Amino acid sequence: MTLNLQSTNNMAATHAHLEGLHQHKGSPGACWDKTMKGWQEIWRHKTMQVCVLVAIPLGLYLCKLGTDVALAAEYYSGGQTEWFAWTLGLVTGAQLILHIWSCGFLYLAERSRHHDDSSNFAKVVHDSPCVFWCLSSIPVVGVCMHYAVFSLLIWRGSDVSGVELERYLPIIHLLEAVMAAISQLCLQIKIWVVTDERVSVLKVVSMVISLVVTVKAVVTYLYYKSNLHRRTLTRGLVGRLLFMTFWKVLEVSVRVLTMGLFASAFAPWIALRIGLHWLVMTAAFFAIDRKLKGIVGLCAWGLAMVVDSFSMTFSPDHRRTFWLNSALTLLGNITMVTVWYTQKAGQDWYDVPALVGIVAGSVVSAGFGFIGMVLNGRIESPVAFCRGGASGTETAEQSSPVPDSGNSVALNTV
């Protein structure tokens, strides 16, 4: 009897011990808390902050620029003057536009020093010596000066949040991604199809970097725009970032492949196709958003719609512009690839896979866009719609962000 009682007590103690291990060590919540605690410890190191906020984004930007210049040199050395001129022209034009915006943002930061809520970035810019402004007036170097200020703030232990990190740099690199990275991707696909040459390692590296740069620019802009950087880092937030990344990889890849293939057969018409898309979306925004009036609004949102011609970034601000841009993108992709396939008539092995892949990818990307709107609270989910019915009105702005608890993810854009 005593032996049985002792055995029963031992079994109960073992069961309790195993249950405790399961609760404290094996549960997903406990593992996540431990991971977040470790991440907070790592993030406190200035080296990690410099790496995430400065080294990675600036390194991608410079690698993208370097590979494009090297690719242009490769075309020149091979006697392909036409492709050399196009490649170098896209690089030069994009950098000049970025330089103008970079100088403008530095000027805005310097002017904001008089405001009570001016950022530390603005104060450093105002106190910078003359050599800072001389270097900022040089293309490419001007963008690097933004990161030089952030590096200084990080090493001083100052707060690096503010409009410069949350808006200025994301917009600069978003424009660079569209004007340089995406245009280079379309051009290189066209060159590959037209010349039917063996793709060099340099071209593959350049195209991969262009895709990475574009996806990071769009995802990071949406990350700041949706105030996700002010929210607590949870599994839901990580999943949402992974969802946005996968969506943008698919969306940009399908869009670039479609335009590159279409341009290889109907080069004069690709500008008209993009121009009509841009014109319709710009007119729709001015008809819906009453804040966008005047020359400044026209210029700013004209550039914004250039971005949305390749990747949906600003059009989700309103439900009507979202549906319009989704329809234009979906129908445009299917129309362009169908016309291209009809003209090719199955001459190459990749014709049918490209047709099927683009059509399927466009449909899936449109579905992901709808899911993204539901996650942002701008469109009711089908379940909620069936239960309560639709309101029929334009959705309100996203609810106020959850206060930061000190472990939010800090991202930059390139």
Automatic annotation (TrEMBL):
Organism domain of life: Eukaryota
Question: Which parts of this chain are annotated as the region Disordered?
Answer: 390-414
Where is this gene product found? Answer: Cell membrane; Membrane
Q: Which InterPro entries match?
A: XK-rel, XK-related_scramblase
One short Pfam name that applies is XK-related
Coarse class of the protein's main subcellular location: membrane
- A GO term from the CC aspect: plasma membrane
Protein name in UniProt: XK-related protein
The way this protein sits in the membrane is described as: Multi-pass membrane protein
Q: Where are the transmembrane segments?
A: 50-71, 83-109, 130-155, 201-224, 244-263, 270-288, 294-315, 322-342, 354-375
Similarity section? Belongs to the XK family.
